């Protein structure tokens, strides 16, 4: 339903309720005007009838069935004012529920507002408009200041600032220029830019986010299923109490009141209202909830598992330079020769060396050897760069000397061979993200254990873990190793796995809760996860944990409150202390309170870091 349709529906509900109240008041003032009360009952009772009919088609018995039965009974007993008041109160409760749900889904509706259908395509000197579905990858488009970026792409001309707040919740604009990536749904603030499209409309960030949000289904939650199962029992109990009370007291009004007050509407409403409110809160803060059961999982989790590269670290590898062990060639020249060789490589380590050092020679006979490294000739000099296995084949002379010098170094190493001799090594490292350390500390303050899973060797992995204060590290991980590690850790407590790569997908799916780092990231990891951090900001994990705990507490409080009101109202009805009208007020009062509790989750501020005083 669009925003316009939502507002139109709410306006129609308000008008119908207002008219019904007026009719009921007139009927109460003048006894002969009882048809006005019947009209009010019909106006506000139509949605109830529709709901019961729809449930009957699906072979379901709903809480509304009891309310409809009560309304019919009131009309048969000529309690027209009571029938009108019950129907009106039910309509008011339904309207309030609709308003809260609409607000909770504001993040989804906001995405719908910014969706556009056309973009300006650049063709030589001409610029013309085309539908997004007709624009293929590789085409060039132009975006003017103030416009929403229609498709994902790379900036090829111009510079600007981009507002990503609708996607990430981050209010500070990001400066972009030639070579930077931009995403559909974000807003171009300042300059005109030309962009080369890298994803078509169906694969763009905006469509992917919208799809993820629309697929967030509160019905997947186990706690929802529990509420539904209990609701069925409550309905049976309500029928038994109603019939039993009538048999014992022969008072149809007492039985009628029980029928009204014992309806489990508030009980059934508590969970979906809380979950939708939590999902709305997350969406406003750049977190997408794909599976509602993640809320329960986060509430019960005992440990947080991190992939290292791209999650705790930037994933951008930097060379710390070359260490010359036995080469007669100056270290600076060796760096240039290896950088020239690696300029032909697509391996991340080779690309790091190539980008961090000057190229000085012409490369010939280049050969990339998967899993080992690269070899080739640079200005007539035979160069090999890679691991120890490659050196033992290409440059065995001096290898043991170099390996003895590097033993225990907490870096990723690339050995260098020149004309068959191992002469030194490059040290490389992945930079830790600025927000990783405070995030780990905050998780520890929340009483959670932290684990790092990485494909790095023990020394490199332990160095990163020690710097961050991580409790447990598992190194030399392949996808199957990560999966088995998650399975083993799950035996000791509920886990939350956070990753960003394809190799993390099995672990993300196996963990109690899987969180993928960014819709911009790998498609497989996003599809395998339960929650998505749009902006790759791991500092949101503690806030998400606190929000989920608060949501579960709120849902439980709503369930207990709803049942307490039902039980209290039923006892009062059995004793003849309240009638159908007061019963309807109690019944809908519980629903309204549950909705207000859900509203507290929608606007809960759990995302700010907590700094606890250790002296307390």
Provide a descriptive summary of the structure in words.
The chain is an alpha+beta fold and 616 residues long. It is 52% helix and 19% strand. A hairpin with a 2-residue loop joins strand 1 (118-123) and strand 2. The radius of gyration is 32 Å and the shape is elongated. It starts with a helix and ends in a 14-residue tail after the last helix. The model is unreliable at 216-221 and 612-616 (pLDDT under 50).
Brief digest:
With 616 residues, this protein is of the alpha+beta class.
Characteristic key phrases:
616 residues; alpha+beta; 7-stranded mixed sheet; 6-stranded antiparallel sheet; 23 helices; 52% helix; disordered C terminus
SSE diagram, text form:
Elements: H1 3-29, H2 34-57, H3 63-76, H4 80-104, H5 106-114, E1 118-123, E2 126-131, E3 140-143, E4 153-157, E5 160-163, H6 165-168, E6 174-176, E7 181-182, E8 187-188, E9 193-197, H7 205-214, H8 222-249, H9 252-261, H10 265-284, E10 287-289, H11 293-300, E11 301-307, H12 308-312, E12 313-324, H13 331-342, H14 348-356, E13 363-369, E14 373-378, E15 381-386, H15 388-394, H16 399-406, E16 412-418, E17 421-432, H17 436-445, E18 449-453, H18 458-468, E19 472-474, H19 479-490, E20 494-499, H20 505-510, E21 513-517, H21 523-528, E22 531-533, H22 541-574, H23 580-602
Parallel strand pairs: 11-18, 11-20, 18-19, 20-21, 21-22
Antiparallel strand pairs: 1-2, 1-3, 3-9, 4-7, 4-9, 5-6, 5-8, 10-22, 12-17, 13-14, 14-15, 15-16, 16-17
